[in-house]
Amino acid sequence: MACIYLVLETGGCVITTSKERQAIKKSLAEAPELPQNFLDVYEKVYPGSMSNTIWGYAFKERFSTVDFKYPVRDAAVTLAILRAKGTFWNTTFMAFMIENYATPQQCLQFNLSRFDFTRNCIGAEAASHYYFKKPLADLTDDEVLEILVMYQNPSLYNKQSSNPRKVAEFYKSFNRLKARYNSNLSVN
Fold first, then answer.
1. What is the pLDDT along the chain (188 residues), one digit of tens a residue?
2. 101 contacts 24 by C-beta, under 8 angstroms
3. Distance between CA 5 and CA 18 in Å, rounded?
4. Which residues contact 52 (CB under 8 A, 6 or more apart)?
5. Which pTM value belongs to this model?
6. What is the DSSP secondary-structure string of 81-133?
7. Distance between CA atoms of 15 and 46, rounded to whole angstroms?
């Protein structure tokens, strides 16, 4: 077990060069900050996502019926795919490595600054301006939820689609996130 633990904890160093690790650290650190209102809504929808570890995520993902997000894992997937090496092990090694370099909040900022929200909107800030005609910091909680719904799959979950099925899927997902947000809001 100790060998498996050590391989996982140092695995990112095996699959990346020192130069790649420096570039990853820089990309994660330089991602534009998300406004507090956005982070508050995200934490209500996905409680504990900003304070977990990759080990905790792995166990929650495996044994929980609740949809759980961990931004470090999402950043690892993005970076592994960008390297054209998006295999399970590369992604896993990358997640352990990233966790040593960045916080979950930095990873979420990285993910959302590079995410394609369709309609030529790269990043949450661009999506906010396109879909709501205002900066991300000025969005209401429901508008942040709409961004989070699109973040799941913007091609499927887009209320501006001309396809009625996609619009219905958007509202179905939105209502699910809104219910989760409201239930966690009443708990805190």
1. 777 666 666 666 667 788 888 888 999 999 999 999 999 999 999 888 888 777 777 776 666 656 667 788 888 888 877 765 667 777 878 888 888 889 999 999 999 999 999 889 999 999 999 999 999 999 999 999 999 999 999 888 888 888 899 999 999 999 999 999 999 876 65
2. yes
3. 21
4. 60, 70, 104
5. 0.85
6. HHTT---HHHHHHHHHHHHHH--HHHHHHHHHHH-B-STT-BSHHHHHHHHHS
7. 30
Give Cα 151 to chain centroid, integer Å. Answer: 8
Identity of the residue numbered 98:
I
Can you list the alpha helix ranges (DSSP code H) found in the chain? Answer: 2-15, 18-30, 36-45, 54-63, 71-82, 88-101, 104-114, 124-132, 141-152, 164-187
Two tokens at 78? Answer: 């993005």
Cβ count within 10 A of residue 185: 13
